[in-house]
Amino acid sequence: MLITEKKLLSILEKIPLDDAHNLSSANVLKELKIVDSNIKLNLCIFNPSLQFKNKIKSALLDKILKNFPNATLDIEFVASKTIKNTIAVASGKGGVGKSTISSNLAIALKNQGYSVGLLDADIYGPSIPLMFDAEHEKPKKVQRGDTSLMSPIISYGIKIMSIGFFLNPSDALVWRGPMATKALTEIAQNTDWGHLDYLLIDLPPGTGDIHLSLVQILSITGAIIVTTPQPVSLIDAKKAINMFKKKDINVPIIGLIENMSWLLINENKHYIFGKGGGGSLAESEKIDLLSQIPLDQSIREAGDVGRPAALQDSVLGSVFDSLGHVVHRCVSDRNNMIAPTKKVQITHNRGCN
Ligand code: ADP
After folding, report:
1. Which residues contact 38 (CB under 8 A, 6 or more apart)?
2. pLDDT per residue as tens digits for the range 268-282
3. Ligand 1 contact via 300 beta carbon (within 6 Å)
4. Among the four 3, 196, 345, 348, which has the fewest Cβ within 10 Å?
5. 140: domain CATH number?
6. Rounded to the nearest whole angstrom, what is the distance from the C-alpha of residue 19 to the centroid of ligand 1?
């Protein structure tokens, strides 16, 4: 029987890869080539373990040979890049709301339908477990082929991993320098994130060794800088921006978020920490001002009770919702600029209608 692409695609369609994909899905089937009785397939898979590849191979052999007994098969696998975008959230100064923004941005992106992970790398004050009501959770170990990994804790649909899950609050001060860097490196490399559209990293404040190490081991798509409008925070935010801009670091800056921009009382904005500081810094550094987030009691309360404000159906919820959209647009624009998405290539159309 003549081997046709149409027939092959209908066979591949019946072989499931996971809950959402089969072997003919556009982001799985990268190449399908037929030369006489030889069929060449290139498949992009999320799980690169030998066992999984063997399972797929035998399903393919079984189904294809049933239809084309004389066919020979060349199957190539490429591992899918499971984390699409890794975004570092940084601030020069502590206490400006970096963790609050990271948490709410994670929820906002999740609300748009993206799969999101949040890595709390703030060794000096890991607050993500508290902000996600996961303080007493302990990540479990999972075996993936030969590798032992840790499962992130899932809260409000966000996959969370925090240095805070592994240390007593009183240990944080001792964990400076190389020890902290080593622990973070292990956590960053050994978490079983699975497929993620976004991994947000809540960095420690400042511009130290930990930042340099994380930038080296994780391939960072871009950085977001959080500041308040006051000079003492802006000066440190500028240092963080300069760190990412350095030639040997060279992490693109997605933009600046001004937090605690104003306090609304009786419809009047009160600029407690000064007015427009974030805008001026963004302009002078030629980066985007992504959002201005008001100072609001319910943002603080939501963080403290472990239910981020972005989950609220309120004005604040929509502030974070817009932030999520802006960040996604800026990241997509940047990705398109740097590496245009490749189209799926089906190199042979013999037999297609
Ligand atoms: P950082 O991560 O920069 O150290 P946090 O996110 O922990 O800062 O925030 C410090 C404190 O400020 C927390 O108590 C948090 O709830 C509060 N906070 C942050 N942003 C806001 C805001 N926009 N309105 C009210 N409180 C805020």
Report:
1. 71, 72, 73, 74
2. 999 999 999 999 999
3. yes
4. 345
5. 3.40.50.300
6. 38
